[in-house]
Amino acid sequence: MESGPCSRPAEPRHCVSGRAGAGLAFPAFPLSAAGAEPGSRIGTVAAVLPAGGCGERMGVRTPKQFCRVLERPLISYTLQAMERVCWIKDIVVTVTGENMEAMRSIIQRYGHKRISLAEAGATRHRSIFNGLKALAEDQPGCELTRPEVVIIHDAVRPFVEEDILLRVVLAAKEHGAAGAIRPLVSTVVSPSADGHLDHSLDRAKHRASEMPQAFHFDVIYEAYQKCSDFDLEFGTECLQLALKYCHRKAKLVEGTPDLWKVTYKQDLCAAEAMIKEKISQEICVVVNTKDEESVGHLLEEVLRNELNCIKVTSTVLDRTSGDIENFIDQCYSFICVNVVSSESRETRKLLSILEESSLPLLYPVVVVLVHCFDFTVVPLAQKMENLVWIRELAKEAKGRNVLLSGVLLNHSQTLKDFSSVSWTLVISNIPD
Amino acid sequence: MESGPCSRPAEPRHCVSGRAGAGLAFPAFPLSAAGAEPGSRIGTVAAVLPAGGCGERMGVRTPKQFCRVLERPLISYTLQAMERVCWIKDIVVTVTGENMEAMRSIIQRYGHKRISLAEAGATRHRSIFNGLKALAEDQPGCELTRPEVVIIHDAVRPFVEEDILLRVVLAAKEHGAAGAIRPLVSTVVSPSADGHLDHSLDRAKHRASEMPQAFHFDVIYEAYQKCSDFDLEFGTECLQLALKYCHRKAKLVEGTPDLWKVTYKQDLCAAEAMIKEKISQEICVVVNTKDEESVGHLLEEVLRNELNCIKVTSTVLDRTSGDIENFIDQCYSFICVNVVSSESRETRKLLSILEESSLPLLYPVVVVLVHCFDFTVVPLAQKMENLVWIRELAKEAKGRNVLLSGVLLNHSQTLKDFSSVSWTLVISNIPD
């Protein structure tokens, strides 16, 4: 068992549940459902994420958990979803030997916390068993604490929310075992040996067993220790092991549609679209000084009318004002209007605020720089030359998951009416 | 039962299976698998598509079959997928009374053929039964021919291919009933009355029953006629009815992953991404005259190197040459390079070729007009004025599902090296 490069800081940075409700990118901890302090009611909780699959159903060579979604490996989104839940103390990821180095560099690159790595087995059950051993404290070299409750979750279900994790953990604490379920999408049939319909199952009486699941650590660890080789080799369902070997009838907890598992190529497309939607809920218009504030408000108005399903705010990036940081947590899209200056100073300032917020660690942040000019006064070529720094800055920013691009807006005579601007000249600045 | 506005032409326009193999947008009929002429082996085939669902699982008000994907209702893609199969004679769609008018205008707008409409019932089974009655010839006012085999397919499975339709129909002809199946993605569990796990099913011994399914018409019609009110109200599986009431054990046919059913919001995202992928497999570079051919080849080379997973071709839109039409069937993305002319004549010609090809009826076609200019010689404002027609033409074209946009390329001195062009000025021309 190996520790990730950044395991278990005293104060995790991305913890949702420990923070105040306002200004959060994600729903805060549901106090009404679970009392004031979940940690004290739950006891110690750890998680095991089997990530040793080869993704054969995806039809691609890369295992699906390592497939890139918006240029970032899928598993990184799942880890982020788990680690922003404060009360999950350790997260053990099981990875095959050949992917261990790749996994280590993902943890490093995206700054994941509280992650430990264990070697995956040849099957899903063997991988989970290895993850549990890493937490059991009875193995040589184990550095982790044996938890009271352990969550088992798939590396390829990136949209798990704190609410369902908590409900499953509380149910497991009470009943020894619990798992998320969903209604069946298709009827399930049982084929005969010669490939004909033997019988079909009543959809109303069956459910799809999804993830996350959670168990008393002692229950599931005992089940795996007693488990037959046949079950380890051909079984897939942890709830079934707890039932068969420890006689625990798992509590089934209704899950949400976004628990779905990325299995096929179309699921990767869907995951990308869902992530894009999450980061497209809000646009923040940024101007550099108080003097330009009215321009910012005008653009804000136009955008609000044009994109009426999206929240639009505006703020001033002033040296004396710190309030821009209040917007950072909620917003992944920024439009920065520059009426006067062609310099890079303000843009660099915004980029460093964004970076400090650790916002780009979760999803890419889009910053569009709008530079206004009047080409009857300033020649186009000259204006472009003044803005050549955008290209270099965009290259730098991309490495930190900020996608910077520039728009040159020809406003002819007046900037008062953005909606009447007839030609927009877009300078392609995002480097390859 | 009502006939759609364009029902049953003598020679359907979009028929894939009847055409030569080369130049097809979709896989041609698999001759090796099914013999030279499927029609003669299959007998008469019709299809029933229940489209009366309310889409409650989608979490939106619009029933999912009418949700728009790339601005076109989902059901229109499914109808297109069915009607390009020549040997399906009639397609009966069952729609609720309140959506009948909307459905009729979809058929009109997208030029669907061989479609008849029937009123949906309160449940899926009642809707299918109504569709079958429309084909049974024993009902008053019926204008359709009673088929030998009937396909039942979902309106929300748009990616069905001719190959699986044929395999299911041939199996139904032999065994009386047949249906596509897929491996289970999740384990299926049976909950006890108090919401605990009672038992879980062996994944290896079960399959998900998907669509399409097919039946001897007499078998499934008899099953529905004998069917209990309870089954009509609460049942969902047609294969089960054929088994229960006509003792036909359906042949189960392994389907492909793209048979999946659009059920949740993420499925709509996935459908959109899949359609975009289908239309992004190839780019055709078009130049106006033989004189500009070398420029076209240069751009073709650059694109081929930059986008190495996409097929790139080039052609000349010459008055004397008709060979552009050979490219039309395979390609949804066109880049038209204009080195000299700023006129609209050539663009209008290309648009009318595209329209005649009926290509935009299936998916949107993207045409990017690249106009080259040297802003040290021609002022930007003057060049833009010369190209104002693009905006009007784009508005017209959009109504016919062609997305036209313009790019002004500043090439300074030479056009020989496209890859060295440092600034690309994009004119936003697509109207709202």
TrEMBL record, chains A, B:
Q: Name one GO molecular function term.
A: D-ribitol-5-phosphate cytidylyltransferase activity
**Localization annotation:** Cytoplasm, Cytosol
Catalytic reactions of this protein: D-ribose 5-phosphate + CTP + H(+) = CDP-D-ribose + diphosphate; D-ribulose 5-phosphate + CTP + H(+) = CDP-D-ribulose + diphosphate; D-ribitol 5-phosphate + CTP + H(+) = CDP-L-ribitol + diphosphate
Protein's GO biological process: isoprenoid biosynthetic process
| UniProt keywords, alphabetically | Cytoplasm, Nucleotidyltransferase, Transferase
PROSITE patterns (alphabetical): ISPD
Q: Which InterPro entries match?
A: IspD/TarI, ISPD_C, ISPD_synthase_CS, Nucleotide-diphossugar_trans
List the pathway annotation.
Protein modification; protein glycosylation
Provide the primary localization.
cytoplasm
Gene3D superfamilies the record matches? Spore Coat Polysaccharide Biosynthesis Protein SpsA, Chain A (3.90.550.10)
One Pfam match, given by its short name, reads ISPD_C
Q: What is its EC number?
A: 2.7.7.40
Q: Which family is this sequence assigned to?
A: Belongs to the IspD/TarI cytidylyltransferase family. IspD subfamily.
Q: How does it assemble?
A: Homodimer.
**Which PANTHER family does the protein's record reference?**
D-RIBITOL-5-PHOSPHATE CYTIDYLYLTRANSFERASE (PTHR43015)
What function is annotated for this protein? Answer: Cytidylyltransferase required for protein O-linked mannosylation. Catalyzes the formation of CDP-ribitol nucleotide sugar from D-ribitol 5-phosphate. CDP-ribitol is a substrate of FKTN during the biosynthesis of the phosphorylated O-mannosyl trisaccharide (N-acetylgalactosamine-beta-3-N-acetylglucosamine-beta-4-(phosphate-6-)mannose), a carbohydrate structure present in alpha-dystroglycan (DAG1), which is required for binding laminin G-like domain-containing extracellular proteins with high affinity.
Q: Per its record, how is this protein called by name?
A: D-ribitol-5-phosphate cytidylyltransferase
Organism equals: Rattus norvegicus
- UniProt lists the gene as Crppa
